Amino acid sequence: MADQENKNMNTSVRVTRLAKKRAMEAIGSHLQPANKKRVVLGELSNNVVTWENPKVGLDQVQKKVKKDVKKPVVEKKDESVGDALTSVDPQMCEAYVSEIFDYLHNMEMEAKRRPMADYIEKIQKDVTVNMRSVLVDWLVEVAEEYKLLPDTLYLTISYIDRFLSSNVLNRQRLQLLGVSSMLIASKYEEISPPHTEDFCYITDNTYTKQEVVKMEADVLKTLKFEMGNPTVRTFLRRFRIGQEDYNAPNLQLEFLSYYLAELSLLEYNCIKFLPSLVAASVTFLSRFTLEPNSHPWNSALEQLSGYKPSDVKDCVQILHDLQSSRRAGNLVAIREKYNQHKFKCVSGLSSPSVIPSSYFDDIKVT
Predict the structure, then answer these.
(1) CB atoms within 10 A of CB 244
(2) CB neighbours (10 Å) of residue 347?
(3) Per-residue confidence (pLDDT) for residue 294, from 0 to 100
């Protein structure tokens, strides 16, 4: 069988492989490419280097480096804290990261991208705060089912709140709004978004494909096709470089931040806060949870976020209630999601029942 296949092989392919083999032999290569292994993304650090045998062949190199290379003297530069911290991560675009986040901060404040803080009281007649929370909790499960990106979930909730800020909706159509908004967000964010039929199926075919498409069009018209806007997750990426241990990332702190950020989606009272302020509050509470005896804020975070401890006090208190299940305690999708080992079971972490009021004083912290 193998001989027959070799006879049928294209001549050019054989020549190419033979030429490649001769070239490899000519340079004395005897190595075979290592088999790639899939790595759990949550276990990756910012700078991952894998060595099959890190000591083989290194001894001589290290001796030569010690002889020939002197340790450089790093002079203190006159630059902002944000730029200095950003320099350790090339993906943060050191040269213009400040301008990028200034732009995003201005964008998040645009009225066309902001929902009404009290739309349920002023606009809706049939939809309640609890119904919104139940819908968000269910959409978290849908996002998990279809393995959607976190940004897709955040954008979905943003579309829902913005639509409900100007359109009265019957409660029977609230789930339809949810799946249609997630369909739009998936098309915006995902490489391979789920199909319309998938979102019909996930509702147990409560709605037809035509109804989902019609609601999708209504949402797009209401939002005037303004689909892109920064989310809490956007700013968390920026604030994480303000951690003192950024060179050795604390995955538990990172996952805890993501957990608290998703809990904020459940809370109607968080709508009034800008995404950047929620992100700053999430960072504050995450650090307090892991080290309650240390001040959770510092000058680097203050400069990166633009918020002082007093600015985040109200939001932190709401997040603290969510974390301790004093709010939305009966909604468990997010808690169960982050109770998995891949997220280091951060939903099981608890913080002291009271946050010292001194932590919210605007004092110079380091």
Answers:
(1) 13
(2) 22
(3) 87
Same domain, 331 and 353: yes
**Which of 222, 245, 269 is the endpoint of a domain?**
222
Residues ≥6 apart with Cβ < 8 Å to 363 = none
pLDDT tens for 325-356 read 888 888 889 999 999 998 898 988 888 888 88
176, 212 in Cβ contact below 8 A? yes
Task: Determine the residue type at 125.
Answer: K
How far is it between the farthest Cα atoms of the chain? 81
Contact between 154 and 265 under an 8 Å Cβ cutoff? The reply is yes
130 and 168 Cβ atoms separated by less than 8 Å: no
Is the pLDDT at 131 greater than 80, yes or no?
yes
What's the predicted TM-score (pTM) here?
Answer: 0.72
Q: For the beta carbon of residue 156, count every other beta carbon within 10 angstroms.
A: 30
| Structural domain that includes position 196 | 116-222
Tell me how long the chain is. Answer: 366
The highest-confidence range among 18-27, 32-41, 212-221, 222-231, by mean pLDDT, is: 212-221
Count other C-beta atoms under 10 Å from residue 137's C-beta. Answer: 18
Q: Report how far residue 23's alpha carbon sits from residue 296's, in angstroms, rounded to the nearest whole number.
A: 59
Q: Are residues 142 and 254 in the same domain?
A: no
Q: How far is CA 78 from the centre of its chain?
A: 32
pLDDT attached to residue 258 = 94
What one-character-per-residue DSSP string does 86-145 give?
Answer: HTT-GGG-TTTHHHHHHHHHHHHT-GGG---TTHHHHT-SS--HHHHHHHHHHHHHHHHH
The predicted-structure confidence for 283-323, as pLDDT tens digits, reads as follows 999 999 998 988 888 888 888 888 889 899 999 999 999 99
* Total structural domains within the chain: 2
Measured in whole angstroms, the distance separating CA 230 from the mean position of its chain's CA atoms is 11
Left (φ > 0), alpha (ψ -120 to 50) or beta: where does 99 sit?
alpha
Q: How far apart are CA 243 and CA 250, in angstroms?
A: 9
pLDDT, the chain, mean: 76
CB contact at 8 A, 314 and 302: no
